[in-house]
Design brief:
Elements: H1 6-32, H2 41-44, H3 47-55, H4 64-77, H5 92-102, H6 109-128
Helix pairs in contact: 4-5, 4-6, 5-6
Length: 131
């Protein structure tokens, strides 16, 4: 399934909403008329399909893993990499990982690398100076 652009996602959700409301209304009517004594939400909604449709928007950039490595190497070289300190607080690795998802529509690797470096710098400032 392809990643949806915002306008496409909104239109798709509107179409699905109408379909779900119609199915739900029919189930309620069947119950009132005695044709159905009970129903399961899992029968009303295809949970697996919904999961897949919702998460299609969160596919990473195709070059994301390669960019992660480049940004991590750069951050470590410049002393900006904050590792796990065992306190459950976010690390540079987690911030670096989000870049490929937030920048999934980046035109090329070069721009994704720049955004990754910016995230690392901002995280470093926030974690070391702002706290």
């Amino acid at each position: 399934m392809k990643s949806l652009q915002p306008a496409e996602a909104i239109e798709y959700a509107r179409n699905r909403k109408d379909e779900w409301l119609a199915e739900y209304s029919q189930l309620l009517q069947d119950q009132e008329d005695g044709r159905a004594s009970q129903f399961l939400l899992s029968e009303l909604l295809d949970i697996q399909k919904i999961y897949e449709e919702r998460h299609v928007r969160f596919l990473p950039h195709p070059d994301g893993d390669e960019v992660d490595e480049v940004v991590a190497e750069w951050a470590k070289k410049h002393g900006l990499w904050i590792g796990n300190q065992g306190d459950g607080i976010e690390t540079s690795a987690e911030v670096n990982e989000m870049n490929k998802y937030l920048g999934r529509f980046a035109i090329d690797k070069k721009r994704l690398i720049v955004s990754g470096k910016i995230y690392i710098i901002l995280f470093y400032i926030d974690d070391t100076i702002a706290n």
